[in-house]
Amino acid sequence: MPEDTKELDGDDLLRNSTLYREFQAEREEILKHKWIESEKAGYDIGFERALTDWILKHRSKWRAYRQALARQQQAANSASTAGPAPQPSSPQEPKSST
What we know:
mainly alpha, DUF4032 domain-containing protein
């Protein structure tokens, strides 16, 4: 095998996975929600409660935002290979009611 060719091990494949990156981003949002809601309550509400609350209140809007952002990035990448084109405006991140 040539020296300049790097084999990806399981950890590299996982880190480079779009699905894994989305999972990590969602987890970060849940942890932020947990912190905010725990501060409001005056005690640690726990991950499970924060997860359930975030899914019910925020997940669908958050995912729609992430999907719109991914489509715009994909369109921008396609446009950059096809030549100059006007850049689409970035979607506004949904406002969290937390």
